Amino acid sequence: MKIHSEICVIGNGAVGKATALALAQAGFDVVLLAPAAQTSHKLESAEDRPWDMRVYALNHMAQALLSSLKVWSAMDLSRVAPVDAMLVHGEDSGGLGQLSFDAYGARVGALAWIVEDSNLNVALDAALRFASGLRVISATATALKLATDNAAITLDNGDVIETSLVVGADGAQSWVRGQCEIGLDYRSYNQQAVVANFACEFPHHGVASQWFLGADGIVALLPLPGQRVSLVWSAPDALAASLLHEPVEKLAERLMALPDQKLGQMSILPPAAPRAIPLKMIRTHSAIAHRVALVGDAAHVVHPLAGQGMNLGFADVDALLSALAKRELKTECGDARTLGRYARSRKEDVALMHLAMDGLQRFFASELPPVRALRNAGLGLIDRIPFLKRRLIAHALGKTSLTNPEERWQ
Predict the structure, then answer these.
(1) Can you give the pTM of this predicted structure?
(2) Does residue 291 form part of some domain?
C-alpha cells in the first residue's frame, strides 16, 4: 500500500512527537513513523508511580513551544518542579569559586522546570491522538529513496510512504542520517551520566546545585517536587562503575559530603538502583540533505553539564516550523531553499552550544594546577560581573537578552 503525506517524521521521542504535532497543528498533512513497541507511555496514579530517573530541565523557549501545542497544561503539573535558583560550586570550598543565578534577578518566574520523561511523553501521546491531519504508523523503516520530486520510505510490512519532506527525529543513532550519508564528528567523553533520585532531609527551596569536581566529574542535584532531588553525575567510566556497584548508602554518603551541601540526610528513592548513560558528543556536518531535515539528537548531541540537549531539540522544532511557514506560496515542504533557511537558522546556536559544552567539559576535567586555579577564580569573577551573568542566564533561558524586563515569550 502507498501512503501519501506532505511530511513524514521518523522517531518516537519527545522531540519527534512535538515535531509531528506542531506540523499537524500548522495545517500540514503529517505521518509520524514510530516503532511499534514504543508508541505510548502508561502511567500509574501519581501516588503510586516512582519518579523517573530521566528528567529534563526545560527552559522558557521549550515551555512556550509546549504551551502553544497545548501539551504543557496536559502534563501532571504536580510533578513538575520550577527551578528558582542555580548554584554552581567549584573546587574552592572557601566560596570564591561559586556562581549563582536566581529567577528574581533574571526577572522571570522560574529559571527552568524539571520535567519527567514519562510525564512529558504521556501528554504528547494524548495530544497526538486528537490532532487532525496526523497519522501515527507503528512500523519500522527499511529503505529510504530520495528522488527529485519526492521521498519514498519503505516499511517492514511492505508499505511505502511517499512524502515531500522527511524529518529525522530518531535519536543519536539516527537511521535517517545514515541513509543520507551525512558526515559527523564524534567524541566519547569516557564518562557515564549516573542518574538516581533521592529523598532529602531538608527542603531544596527550588535550587539546582552543581559541583565541578575535577577528575571526579560533575555532579548536579536537580529539584523535584517536595523534598526530593534528581541526581545526574557525569562521572569518568571507572568512577561510574564504582557508583553503580557500591551500596546505595555509599552513594548517598558521597552526595552528603559535597561542599556546602545543605540537604541533610539523603536516601535513594525506588527503584533503588542508579543507572548510567554513556556520554558523547555528535556534531553533524549538516542538519539537512535532499528532502531531509534532522532535529534533536539526530542533528546534535552535547554534554549534559548544562542540561540543554532537549532544549536544543525543541528549538529545532520551532525553527523548522518557522522555515516552513516562510516558504513561498505553493512551494513544497521539501524545497531546498526552505531547508537551507532552517539549517542557517540553527547553525550558530548549535555551534555555540557545542563549543561551550565541549570546551567547559575539557576545562573542568583538567587536573593541571594553573587550570584549576583559573576555573575557580573564573566562577567567582563571573558571579561579580552582572553583564556576563545576564548573558549566561539569557542563553540558558532561550532568550536573546534580559535587557528588557517586560520581554516574554509569545
Answers:
(1) 0.89
(2) yes
